[in-house]
Amino acid sequence: MRVLVTGGTGVLGRVLVQQLDGLSEVRVLSRRAPQGAGFVRGDLETGEGLADAVDGVDVIAHCASAADYWRPRRDVAQTRRLVGALGDARPHLVYVSIVGVDQASFGFLRAKLEAERVVEESGLPWTVLRATEFHDLLLMYLMRLAKGLVAVVLRGSLLQPVDVGEVAARMATLVLGPPGGRVRELGGPRVESMEDLMRAYLAAARQRRRVVTIPVPGRLGAGFGIGDHLLTDDDRGTVTFDEYLRSRVDADGLISHPYTP
Ligand SMILES: NC(=O)c1ccc[n+]([C@@H]2O[C@H](COP(=O)([O-])OP(=O)(O)OC[C@H]3O[C@@H](n4cnc5c(N)ncnc54)[C@H](OP(=O)(O)O)[C@@H]3O)[C@@H](O)[C@H]2O)c1
Asked: Could you tell me which residue ranges the NAD(P)-binding domain spans (predicted)?
């Protein structure tokens, strides 16, 4: 089976590529210079290289995202461009989305829902997996929010972070299996307040900072409080944020996340 992983250099995509290694012939689409066999240079924003990237593949795991919160619809256009590059070919398209996109309180999630629709209405065999926020992404935000004199979190916000290895494992199963349409959502084992998650980070990083909660007004704040971004299916991973944090502490006691600045 020939599989194209878009976003195969990203946080999720990298792990997925490792997990598919040996089980399928993997090709990675990236804007960067090829980093080995199987890398195809291409850009979903311009369409450059896409025809070569999709040529002859049986499955596409679409993990690329512009992650552009100011212009969120770039992901919609890029997904459309990917589908457009296929011509008459009909590979199985597996897309990873975000839990709660249909309750979307801000533009990035609304665009993600729109990108799901592009996949569903593509005429291709398709599968969409929605996952909650990855531990890695949460850590990145907590580190940013703890940079000042005090650590700031959203009051009343509930989160259910999931381990990216477990999302990649589910993606790999979906890639190797038949098209499943909208499959069960995947999230982490625990629902925790952002305040508790921040305290866990500060303890792991051995930082003594006061945690200050700020209210988030309107629909966005209400959404986080009432759990718009928590699992609706009860399909939970096993790795907790605490366990993940321990795995990110290096020999010097420093913590890092895998996202590039
Ligand atoms: N992070 C989360 O908490 C979370 C939760 C649920 C779902 N998701 C979804 O999971 C997917 C992966 O997220 P992630 O956090 O792993 O992403 P990420 O680490 O930010 O990686 C983004 C990837 O997209 C690729 N990319 C960006 N623009 C591109 C373009 N114009 N053409 C081709 N490739 C492009 C990048 O490749 P190059 O830079 O090499 O070109 C990179 O590999 C996304 O769809 C995201 O919405 C994420």
From this structure: 7-136
- Asked if 163 and 188 touch (Cβ cutoff 8 Å), the reply is yes
Residue closest to 86 by CA, chosen among 57, 61, 113: 57
| Domains: count for the chain | 1
Structure tokens at 56: 């002859």
What CATH number has the domain bearing residue 179? 3.40.50.720
Best mutation site among 44, 63, 230 for ligand 1, i.e. most ligand atoms within 8 A of its Cβ? 63
Q: Which range of residues forms the domain containing residue 167?
A: 2-248
* Rounded alpha-carbon distances, angstroms, from residue 221 to 112, 215, 227, 250: 19, 7, 10, 35
260 in any annotated domain? no
Q: What is the pLDDT of residues 59-114, one digit of tens each?
A: 999 999 999 989 999 999 999 999 999 999 999 999 999 999 988 667 888 999 99
218 Cα to the center of ligand 1, angstroms: 29
Tell me if 139 is assigned to some domain.
Answer: yes
Give 192's strand partners: 159
Residue 181 in any domain: the answer is: yes
- Does residue 261 fall inside a structural domain? no
- Read off the pLDDT of residues 15-30 as tens digits, 9 standing for 90 and up: 999 999 999 999 999 9
Ligand 1 centroid to 84 CA: how many Å? Answer: 20
- The Cα–Cα gap between 90 and 100 comes to 29
DSSP letter at 84?
A: H
